[in-house]
Amino acid sequence: MPRTVKKSNLPHKICATCEKPFTWRKKWEKVWDDVRYCSERCRRTKDKNR
Length: 50
Description:
By secondary structure, the chain is of the alpha+beta class. Helix content is 10%, strand content 12%. The chain is built from 1 helix and 2 strands, in the order E-E-H. A two-stranded antiparallel ribbon has the order 1-2. The chain is elongated, with a radius of gyration of 13 Å.
């Protein structure tokens, strides 16, 4: 039996910069609680939008 999760059941967050929703990614598995931005571009421009 596969241990997969449907994409619709993955956790979501709202990006702190662009305020758009984004979903969990495998590369964020260990740091999901610390993830605040949907992309590297949003992380780099975080101060410009505030």
